Amino acid sequence: MAGLMSILVLSSLPIGNVYAQQPTGNVPTVTGTPTGPYVTVYSDQTFIDVYAGPSSYDYEKIGIMAAGTSAPALGYSQDNNWIEIVYLGVPNAVGWVYARFVSITPGSLPKLSAPPTAAPLTTPTLNPTFVAAYGLQVVPTRLPTYTPPIP
Prior knowledge:
The chain has 151 residues and is of the alpha+beta class. The chain has 2 helices and 7 strands. The N and C termini lie far apart (127 Å).
């Protein structure tokens, strides 16, 4: 009975006007940051290799990019066959991808010079002592000569 009495007392009290909070000033809007040109790996590629420079022969492989992944593009190689990208986790945070394996969003990219190639750790040479000890014969061979076709 006491519970019923407290409900009746509370419900009989006057309720004042309740107003929703009004915004003050301007409400900031969130806008995206312009990203510039970026590359995206074609979906028909499982993955592509990322190299330390614009060549798969002169530079070491430093990583991969899976199909559909994107990275900011920094510039083209001198021959337009390679694109330098932002590739985190490696020295200088840059890598190079072969341009035919990626699409690039519109935008202008500068031509970039290739980074220096890594120096080989050793230079392969023939040790004369080793050759003499094992009796290896280094025989010079003649190079083939050019014979012009019969007229």
